[in-house]
């Protein structure tokens, strides 16, 4: 029993020693194994540098022609033929379409006949007017002739009266016979009758040709015969003159109608008003153009494509930064290999109430006519003075909120998280306005394996030349 107790005591002591030894050695062995099995994460970095960058506004929009015209007929009718198709080139003055012309030609002939008839009426009225003027001149001469005759009759009457009175005195004294005295009396009566008849005839032929007629018409009586005759001609040919004016007015009316018919006939052919491309065909043969309104009755749409507008909207917030003359970078999704430059040339003068956006148009040279109306495009408008920023690859940035995020920089082979503020995003690059320092080694590959302060294996520092600028 004593031997067994000693053995038990020695065994217990040995087991305790072994347990203590194991507890001491296992962590060491475990740590050694662990240290030998875990590798440091590998990363790639770029050295960042300050760049002077113009702030920009990103947007999207469509291609719109600089100049486009919906071409339509100005006269009603049925389309006889359309000579172009969509995509055809249209030179200025090229025939695009024609209307049926039979009715228009008949209308033109009818007005030509009416014009000939009215011209004959004008000639007839003018001849009547000239004849009436000559008749007035003849009457004027006749009036003067009657006036002279009246004076002659008056002189003869007065002479015969004096002769009669003288013979009457001699007869009373017995110097002549009664037959001779009666003969003188008969001569006097005859001369008096001629004088009275002459006065009555003069009064009749002088109606409308008297000085009083000139005064009644509101004119001053001229002192010369030619002046009197000119006024009397106008006064006594008013009806004939009015007939001439009516005939001439009828002629002008028919002439206007004929010119309108000729113009309608000319406008039955539709020509291109400018050099361009037919980008839309609305009408075809047999379609009817009504005369009520031209709205919606365009035949084709012709557009100039050598220069186009990139039309896009910017937010109300950014609208205050936009002004004419700003440069715009333009990219087209379907033409990724081609980059375009534009200049802001038109700015809508008001903000859209529903969208709170401002429409902007940038003029772009369309080399090769690759840009087609309606194409989707993306724009970047450079607004404001250049300012210092850090441009980093998107791969090195982790977003945490609006305009907020973090990056990892390497210092003494350890990774450290740095909070940064984003100014804007440009494709695969991000512009950082604060949080970094020039010369920082920014991790661009292997970011997902990093933790704060972890030691890393930097495979290769790519340098700042890897960080290419995408903007101004």
From TrEMBL:
Residues 101-170 form a coiled coil. Keywords: Coiled coil, Membrane, Transmembrane, Transmembrane helix. One of its GO terms (molecular function) is efflux transmembrane transporter activity. Residues 67-299 form the Multidrug resistance protein MdtA-like barrel-sandwich hybrid domain. Gene3D superfamilies: 2.40.30.170, 2.40.420.20, 2.40.50.100, Helix hairpin bin. It comes from the Bacteria. This is Efflux transporter periplasmic adaptor subunit. It comes from Leptospira neocaledonica. The chain crosses the membrane at residues 7-26. Residues 310-381 form the CusB-like beta-barrel domain. GO terms for cellular component: efflux pump complex. Residues 392-458 form the YknX-like C-terminal permuted SH3-like domain. The keyword Membrane applies. Belongs to the membrane fusion protein (MFP) (TC 8.A.1) family.
